[in-house]
Design brief:
Blueprint lengths: L8 E3 L12 E3 L4 E3 L14 E3 L21 E3 L6 E3 L15 E3 L4 E4 L21 E4 L7 E4 L2 E5 L2 E5 L8 E3 L4 E5 L12 E3 L4 E3 L14 E3 L6 E2 L13 E3 L4 E5 L4 H4 L11 E3 L17 H38 L1 H16 L1
Length: 346
């Protein structure tokens, strides 16, 4: 059931799901209010639930963990509030969840270290795209390609062909705090991770280096401290990274993927240094390529002074030689001058 991009208002009917046959419920981009209907727990076949960009006011739907096949849950841009951790601070109970988007709400609280341990970690899925089939009505059946709104590599986009191997988490634009759970490193198939615009503290987890499939990472505008893990420099698929406006320090890990990022991806961290920032880690702003030029200028100055010295020395020697000749011939010149004077007197 896809009812997206209409002008529906009011609340979602509680009698919407009376059987286990519903696979997809997409009511995004409407003006719906109220709470999520608790009758959704009867939809045991539900694989996608999307309520993006409505006005729903509710707490996080922990009760949806009863759905064994839920793969896509997108609650972006609503008025959800409260913690997203289970009441007893255990792991999140969605074993098949691949796309989890709760951005731009009012969620609060912290995440326990084992928050992600029950997630599916394999990237081996059947088929190329997320296509759901229904064979109930004829031999051919009906296929439906899901539409997911993703915030990916710094851009918001509507994705109509979603790879079955795609795995994304977007918690951005909330009020989450505390440390980022190390258990996030268990999500081997994770491609996009966005934790920006929250109040996370502590270090960037070293386990990020285990996310070998990661293509987009955004932890900007938090209160993270410490250094950037060197392991991020070895993530060969990482095309986009943003750690700006935190309290990070130390050298930026060097690697082909990180050196190709813009300076804006690291700005707002007074203690960071190294490329692509202009601030070097050695207290000098002079590029190494300019040093040979300065040496050449010094050599030219030395040669110029040598030439002056040689010219001056040569002139002195010539002058001395002429003076010596004058002195050596002085008696002869004096005799001639005296003879001339005598002739005039006569």
């Amino acid at each position: 059931m896809s009812l997206r991009e209409n002008n529906f208002d009011g609340s979602i009917p509680d009698t919407l799901c009376t059987s286990a046959s519903l696979l997809i419920l997409d009511v995004s981009y409407n003006r719906l209010t109220g709470r999520l209907p608790r009758s959704l727990v009867n939809c045991s076949s539900l694989k996608l639930l999307s309520v993006v960009n409505n006005r729903i006011q509710d707490t996080f739907p922990f009760w949806l963990k009863a759905l064994p096949n839920l793969q896509v849950l997108t609650l972006r841009s609503n008025q959800f509030y409260g913690p997203i951790s289970p009441p007893h601070q255990g792991p999140l109970g969605f074993p098949e969840l691949r796309i989890f988007e709760i951005a731009d709400n009012k969620f609060t609280g912290s995440l326990p270290p084992n928050y992600f341990v029950n997630w599916k970690t394999s990237s081996e899925y059947e088929g190329l795209y997320m296509v759901y089939h229904d064979q109930r009505y004829d031999e051919i059946g009906y296929s439906y390609r899901i539409i997911v709104d993703l915030h990916y590599k710094g851009l918001s986009m509507e994705q109509q062909l979603v790879l079955t191997a795609y795995s994304a988490i977007d918690f951005s634009g909330n009020r989450l705090e505390g440390e980022i759970p190390e258990s996030i490193g268990l999500l081997k198939a994770l491609i996009a991770l966005n934790l920006s615009n929250n109040a996370f503290t502590g270090h960037i987890p070293l386990s990020f280096a285990n996310l070998k499939e990661l293509e987009s990472l955004d932890v900007s505008r938090n209160q993270l401290s410490g250094t950037i893990p060197n392991g991020l420099g070895g993530l060969s698929f990482l095309e986009y990274i943003n750690v700006s406006h935190n309290q990070l320090r130390g050298a930026i890990p060097q690697g082909p993927q990180i050196m190709g990022q813009p300076e804006s991806s690291f700005e707002g961290n007074a203690g960071l240094c190294g490329l692509p920032l202009e601030e070097t880690c050695y207290g000098s702003h002079t590029p190494p390529t300019q040093q040979p030029k300065e040496e050449n200028e010094d050599e030219e100055q030395v040669l110029s002074w040598k030439a002056v010295a040689i010219g001056y020395g040569s002139g002195v020697l010539v002058g001395l030689a002429v003076a010596q000749l004058i002195v050596s011939y002085k008696p002869e010149w004096l005799a001639k001058i005296m003879c001339l004077n005598k002739r005039k007197n006569r």
